[in-house]
Each structure stands twice: as structure tokens, then as C-alpha cells.
Design brief:
Elements (H helix, E strand, L loop, with lengths): L1 H21 L34 E4 L9 E7 L5 E6 L8 E7 L2 E5 L7 E10 L3 E11 L7 H5 L5 E5 L9 E2 L3 E8 L2 E2 L4 E6 L4 E5 L5 E5 L18 E12 L2 E12 L2 H30 L3 H8 L1
Parallel strand pairs: 7-16, 9-16
Antiparallel strand pairs: 1-2, 2-5, 3-4, 3-6, 4-5, 6-7, 8-10, 10-11, 10-14, 12-13, 12-15, 15-16
Length: 305
């Protein structure tokens, strides 16, 4: 019985850890627009190929480490001479800063050495017939104002804006539903198609409602644990949301990219399954012992001879 109690406690601890982690993460409201995920092509793995999307992206440089208040981002799929960082806090002259794109990317800084939280980052490419925008959010670990007002500000003709971003230490996760707003000329854009692509090959489409909001369902598409982990050991993969619109003879294409993580329920299910499996084996052990020590008919005859 002591073995059973110890194992049951271990199973509860294994299953309870993801549940406690979930308490620190933010959940979006339930979806109002059904998602229609497409079949995922085979063979797509994070880090294995850059061809999982043709959308414009802002990606962190491969180099590890760096300054606490700095980051290096590389524009991909977009020709931009500068990357612009917007902050919701800090000195007025640091609320909007342009950083040149060098060979390794654009080396960004937070609005001030001790100002953190989310900063909004964009790259823009413009020609006579097209405007292309890549956007992302970058979290600096120092304290700072919540990005609520920062996300309300309109900066480009066509925009995709999270509503809201995950809280500190939170993440987008598989099977979660999150809201994103599509704006054009500063106004919500209704009946606009929003496309999601992930590193694992999933492709989904969503349509905004009358308020310009699309409720996005993150696909459950992580592969077996063989890819990279972040600093805390949590697996992450990239995703991008894109939308486009033509107006007055010009095409506008905008994208928002970020990362999402493994569904914690997977670990919980595996923990409970392993615990119950071991409990069953232990419960069966006394029966097997009694059966192995019980004398057979032939054995009884030999002992009496």
C-alpha cells in the first residue's frame, strides 16, 4: 500500500504541474468564428527550412544571449532598410525609434534601460503598387506599462493587432483561441480573411466579424520532442498571420508573426497514463507472486515420494 500511495502522489504531481502553469497564462474568449484548418503537409520541422511561409517576417537572430534590454531581429521576405520599435513607456523621444538593418539584422533596444514589457516592432517595404508590412511584439523583461494603449495606435494602412497579447510568462498555445483585430485606415475591417501558417505546415483561415475581430484557433500540430527548447525548456514554434487588401490600385499585405507552445494537456495526459499503468502493474504483482509459489500437482507428487 505504501508503494501505491507514493506512486499515486507522483502521478498527481506530474499531472498537476501543467495545470499550475496554466493558471499563469491568459486565455482568450471563446471563438465566435469557426476555424477551418487545412491538412498539414508532411516533413515540415522548425529550424529545418525557411520555406514554411512566404509571408514577411521579423525573426530573432540565431545568436544566443545578448543584453537584457536588447535584441537582434532579422527581416525575412521583406526588403526593409530599417526596423521601427514602438514603446508604451519611457522618454517621449524613445517611444518610436528606427534601427538600421545590418548584416546580422537590426539591433534593437528597449525604450530605456529599466523600461520593459512589450514593444511593438515593424518593418515596411513600399513601392508604387504595393505596401508590405511585417510586425511582431518583443518582450523585454524589465517592468513597463501594459501594451493596451500601444496596440490601439494605428501606424499603417492595413494592420493585424493582437487583442490582447499573452500576459507575462504566458504564451499562445496549441488548441487555444485568441482574438486578433484587423484594421484598415485605423478602422476595424469586417469580413476580412486572415490566414495562419505555422512552422509545422498547418494552414488555417479565419474571417473577421463586424467589429473586425477574428478568433484564431491555434492548431495542435507539434511533432515528437526532437526540436529546440527555449531557456526554460518549453518547446516553441513560429506562426504568422497574414491578410491583404487592394485599394485605389495599390495592394496592401501585412503580417504578424510570433511563437506558440505545446499544449500542456499533452503532458498531463501522459503523466496520468504512466501513473495508472504503473499502479496496475504493482496491483498485479501480489497475484503473480502467489501464482508462482503455488505448488503444481506434479510438484506435490514429487514431494510425497
Amino acid at each position: 500500500m505504501n508503494h501505491l500511495a507514493i506512486l499515486a502522489a507522483a502521478g498527481l504531481a506530474t499531472a498537476g504541474a501543467p495545470a499550475m502553469a496554466q493558471q499563469h497564462e491568459h486565455h482568450a474568449p471563446a471563438a465566435t468564428q469557426p476555424a477551418a484548418p487545412a491538412a498539414a503537409p508532411q516533413g515540415q520541422r522548425p529550424g529545418g527550412s525557411r520555406e514554411w511561409t512566404r509571408a514577411p517576417l521579423l525573426l530573432p537572430a540565431m545568436a544566443r544571449g545578448g543584453e537584457r534590454g536588447g535584441a537582434t531581429l532579422r527581416p525575412m521576405g521583406i526588403e526593409a532598410a530599417n526596423v521601427t520599435v514602438y514603446a508604451g513607456d519611457g522618454p517621449a523621444e524613445r517611444r518610436r525609434v528606427d534601427y538600421p538593418v545590418g548584416p546580422e539584422g537590426a539591433k534593437l533596444k528597449s525604450a530605456a534601460p529599466k523600461v520593459g514589457n512589450y514593444h511593438w516592432v515593424v518593418a515596411r517595404q513600399e513601392s508604387d503598387g504595393e505596401v508590405k508590412v511585417a510586425s511582431t511584439a518583443w518582450y523585454f523583461s524589465n517592468p513597463g506599462d501594459a501594451p493596451t494603449d500601444l496596440l490601439k495606435q494605428s501606424r499603417h494602412e492595413l494592420e493585424i493587432v493582437p487583442d490582447p497579447l499573452p500576459r507575462e510568462h504566458g504564451n499562445y498555445r496549441e488548441s487555444d483561441k485568441w482574438r486578433f483585430i484587423v484594421r484598415y485606415a485605423g478602422q476595424p475591417l469586417a469580413n476580412q480573411t486572415l490566414t495562419m501558417e505555422t512552422e509545422y505546415g498547418s494552414r488555417s483561415r479565419f474571417v473577421t466579424d463586424a467589429a473586425g475581430v477574428a478568433t484564431v484557433l491555434f492548431p495542435r500540430d507539434f511533432k515528437p520532442a526532437e526540436e529546440g527548447h527555449d531557456a526554460h525548456g518549453r518547446r516553441k514554434a513560429k506562426f504568422v498571420l497574414t491578410t491583404e487588401k487592394e485599394d485605389a490600385g495599390k495592394r496592401y499585405l501585412t503580417a504578424f508573426n510570433y511563437t506558440y507552445t505545446l499544449d500542456a494537456d499533452r503532458d498531463r495526459s501522459l503523466g496520468w497514463g504512466a501513473a495508472f499503468g504503473l499502479l496496475g502493474m504493482i496491483a498485479a504483482t501480489p497475484l503473480l507472486r502467489r501464482r508462482s509459489t503455488r505448488p503444481t500437482a506434479a510438484g506435490q507428487g514429487d514431494s510425497n515420494a
